[in-house]
Design goal:
about 80 residues, alpha+beta, two-stranded antiparallel ribbon, extended
C-alpha cells in the first residue's frame, strides 16, 4: 500500500494491521484446547516465478507470512477452568 500512487493514498485513511507475535504451537494448542480437531495446515508461499516477477516476494518463499489452519469441531466440549 505504501507503493500506491499518491492520489489513491490520499483517498484512504492510514491503517495498521495488528500483529500477534506468538509461537505457532501457542496458536495450534489454543485451537485444540477449544475442542477442534486439526485437519490440515498450509503455509502459502509465492512460487519461484512469482518471486522472479516481484522481487519483494523472495523472502516470503523462505518464511511464509500466513498459516492456514483447517479445523473441525470435534463435538467434544473443552474442559473449563475456574
Amino acid at each position: 500500500f505504501g507503493a500506491a500512487p499518491d492520489d489513491i493514498k490520499a483517498r484512504h485513511a492510514k491503517f495498521i494491521v495488528p500483529r500477534f507475535h506468538r509461537p505457532i504451537s501457542s496458536w495450534i494448542n489454543c485451537v485444540i484446547a477449544a475442542g477442534f480437531t486439526l485437519e490440515a495446515l498450509q503455509e502459502p508461499r509465492p512460487t519461484a516465478a512469482e518471486a522472479e516477477v516481484c522481487s519483494d516476494l523472495v523472502d516470503n518463499r523462505i518464511g511464509p507470512l500466513f498459516l492456514h489452519v483447517r479445523a473441525r469441531n470435534s463435538g467434544v466440549k473443552p474442559a473449563t477452568t475456574g
